């Protein structure tokens, strides 16, 4: 490994440490670290910019804007309201209702933070009536949304796929999503069983919901820079979200048309991507443009719901990793890893290191953007690639209830103030427990196949 390659690797470690220590955006730090590497290597900056992930940028922006149309038009709130009304008094199904809604939205391409930010406050409103299942319902929403984020239509799944494609690795994208969902369902079932057992013994943890009232500050304002693309709070109660509320039929007619067209646009998006195999980002952008032309909602408000911080984080980090590939650092790392062999220790180290990083860094997307190239470098031509990918990425998706993440913060902010300190500890304990148990269980399969 040359001096410049060693410097680029050291700077990457420094970027990660500073990002965790100072709570800074990894993308900004990574692009800053590119300067000394470019100067010492003599590489033309234009070569580095060729590695900018334009496809992921368009995907995140397009799908997030389409989801913002769904939320702003009231289509999403209306569907969620109808679903919960159908479930009615069957409290055992309430956690699975939120889980399925969140998972479907993330699977269809919504950036995982968006359904979490939309549904967590809405579940808090439902929880006022069904307090006994409120805590489990909130957990089910965040687990379902983030685990389904490994769908190839989702920015997180697309990031994993992009890392594999760059290193000429192939795996089943939908297979990864299926494993993630099986694990997520299992985790929610276990949590539901433990909750029922504790309730029988009279030790159940009953969380008191405290949903934001209409006009309250948006809960996401307190969660740092990783803002979701859709509104985290509800400016109106769930039944009224997206409606004009002026009381006149003339005022509500355009909103109904906007609501129906937004819903149909989302269906068209799924059909274009899944059936016609059209590009995810461009398809979303096309539908966003059509909705904007037809109904002209406030464009500034719409664009403010894009996750600019996450987009900068991902694009900056991947551009720096592309620079490392151009100067040969990735190849040098590959030689070192191949010298170590693709053994049990390496599988466990990669799986647990990713889970640990997801518990101390608030962006799962950033952590996976950093770790997956290392995984595919170490297991590029191994028949175990798919299962190693599962062992590394699937547990990472389960860490989101950690209070350092947007999801954990939203759960706390929609709960009674007097319980928030105890809830913080409970969520942190659950995230750490999952980080200890799940990577080891998933690593059993590739280890057994070695």
Order of helices and strands: HHHHHHHHHHHHHHHHHHHH
Shape: globular
Runs in which pLDDT lies below 50 for 5 or more consecutive residues are: 213-254
Mean pLDDT: 83
The count of β-strands is 0
**How large, in whole angstroms, is the Cα Rg?**
22 Å
Number of domains: 1
**Number of helical segments with 4 or more residues:** 20
Classify the beta-strand content into a percent band: under 5%
Describe what this molecule looks like in 3D.
With about 450 residues, the protein is mostly helical. It contains 20 helices and no strands. α8 runs antiparallel to α10. The longest helix is centred in the last third of the chain and has 30 residues, at about 420-450. The two termini are about 30 Å apart.
Element layout with pairings:
Layout: H1 3-22, H2 26-41, H3 45-49, H4 54-73, H5 75-87, H6 94-107, H7 113-127, H8 134-147, H9 155-166, H10 173-200, H11 249-274, H12 280-295, H13 299-303, H14 308-326, H15 329-340, H16 344-360, H17 364-378, H18 385-396, H19 406-413, H20 420-449
């Amino acid at each position: 490994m040359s001096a410049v390659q060693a410097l680029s690797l050291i700077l990457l470690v420094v970027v990660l440490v500073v990002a965790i220590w100072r709570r800074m955006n990894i993308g900004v730090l990574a692009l800053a670290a590119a300067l000394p590497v470019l100067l010492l290597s003599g590489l033309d900056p234009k070569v580095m910019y060729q590695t900018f992930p334009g496809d992921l940028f368009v995907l995140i922006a397009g799908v997030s804007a389409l989801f913002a149309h769904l939320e702003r038009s009231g289509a999403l709130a209306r569907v969620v309201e109808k679903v919960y009304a159908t479930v009615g008094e069957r409290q055992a199904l309430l956690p699975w209702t939120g889980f399925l809604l969140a998972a479907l939205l993330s699977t269809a391409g919504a950036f995982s933070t968006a359904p979490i930010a939309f549904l967590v406050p809405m579940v808090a409103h439902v929880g006022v009536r069904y307090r006994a299942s409120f805590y489990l319902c909130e957990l089910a929403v965040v687990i379902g949304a983030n685990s389904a984020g490994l769908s190839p239509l989702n920015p997180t799944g697309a990031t994993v796929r992009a890392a594999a494609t760059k290193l000429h690795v192939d795996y089943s994208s939908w297979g990864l999503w299926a494993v993630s969902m099986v694990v997520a369902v299992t985790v929610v079932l276990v949590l539901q069983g433990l909750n029922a057992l504790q309730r029988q013994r009279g030790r159940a943890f009953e969380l008191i919901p405290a949903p934001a009232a209409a006009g309250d500050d948006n809960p996401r304002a307190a969660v740092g820079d990783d803002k979701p693309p859709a509104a985290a709070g509800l400016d109106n109660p769930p039944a009224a979200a997206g409606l004009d509320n002026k009381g006149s039929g003339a005022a509500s007619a355009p909103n109904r048309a906007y609501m129906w067209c937004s819903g149909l646009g989302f269906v068209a998006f799924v059909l274009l991507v899944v059936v016609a195999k059209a590009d995810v980002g461009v398809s979303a952008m096309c539908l966003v443009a059509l909705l904007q032309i037809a109904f002209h909602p406030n464009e500034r408000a719409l664009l403010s719901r894009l996750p600019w911080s996450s987009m900068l984080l991902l694009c900056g980090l991947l551009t720096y990793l592309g620079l490392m590939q151009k100067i040969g650092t990735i190849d040098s790392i590959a030689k070192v890893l191949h010298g170590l062999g693709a053994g049990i220790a390496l599988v466990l180290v990669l799986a647990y290191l990713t889970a640990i990083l997801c518990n101390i860094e608030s962006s799962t997307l950033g952590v996976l953007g950093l770790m997956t190239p290392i995984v595919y470098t170490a297991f590029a031509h191994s028949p175990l690639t798919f299962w190693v990918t599962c062992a590394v990425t699937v547990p990472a998706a389960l860490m989101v209830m950690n209070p350092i993440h947007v999801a954990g913060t939203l759960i706390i902010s929609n709960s009674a103030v007097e319980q928030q300190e105890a809830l913080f500890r409970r969520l942190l304990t659950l995230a750490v427990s999952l980080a200890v148990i799940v990577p080891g269980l998933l690593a059993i399969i590739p280890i057994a196949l070695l």
